[in-house]
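RECORD CONTENTS
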Amino acid sequence: MFDDAIAACATRQHGFITGKQVHQLGGSKHYVQTRLDAGRWRRHSRGVYWITGHALTWEARVAGAVLAGGDGSLASHRSAAVLWELDGIRQGPPEIVVPRHRRPRHLSGVRVHESTDLGLAEPRTRSGIQATGIERTLLDLGAVVDVRTVEGAIDSALRRRLTTWTALYGTLSRHSRKGRDGCAAFREVLDARFGDRVVPQSRFERLVANLLVDSGLPASALQHPVPDLFPWDIHLDLAYPSNRIGIELQSVAHHLNLTAFETDRERLTRLRLAGWTMLEFTWRFYVERSRELVAMVSGALADPGVT
């Protein structure tokens, strides 16, 4: 029964267990040492052990780092963003936050942040790992990635209803202090977007919208509604309504759906008959030919025949 309890605890933690947890379950230092000597366990860091046979996945590495950080440590910043499945953030070295002045010196390959306001982190369990809450994660991202990446992550969280504008602004208010890492980028996004009723339906839309603005073109409307085109409630991915220019962004997965492909052809026909100039771009076109994309939109906006 004791071994079962140890195994269950380690399984919940992606194969890791601490000496403190072993003691709480009724084990001794001798118990730990016999398993190390037999090669059944390996020492991960001071007081943290990995039970051999478990896969050393990225999640396992993060779980081990959090346990090695000690009581109160959390997966944070980019690691927390990955655990929250936010757009635009990739797996990388484990990243954790620990209380101020308790930086573990025995960890290698781990990004460690110290914090004086961990009491505001609102921890949540993601994939079996204790991580900073969604709002705190988004704020902390501002300290390690650019503003546009923060904006995309916020879009992702709002789209999935993980948070609200009110909750985000409340987090900024609670954390704001001079020199606090992450607040500047977080505030920049909120000041520009706070209260937006429209959230792009994909990261692709936000990326193209930002590309156009960065290239000197006017800001486009996101998810612009076009009423009275029965039988659909049509929303254009991006649009310049006063010019009646619409931009539709197509993914490979979308094109593999035959029904959606055929429906889109009819939607586009109806839009063009209603006087809309419709531009269509794929992800590959955006990635490989972004200058041409901007030139096409710019040309449509400059065309005197487009009203």
Q: What stands out?
A: The radius of gyration is 25 Å. DSSP finds 14 helices and twelve strands in the chain. The mean pLDDT is 87. The longest helix spans residues 258-273.
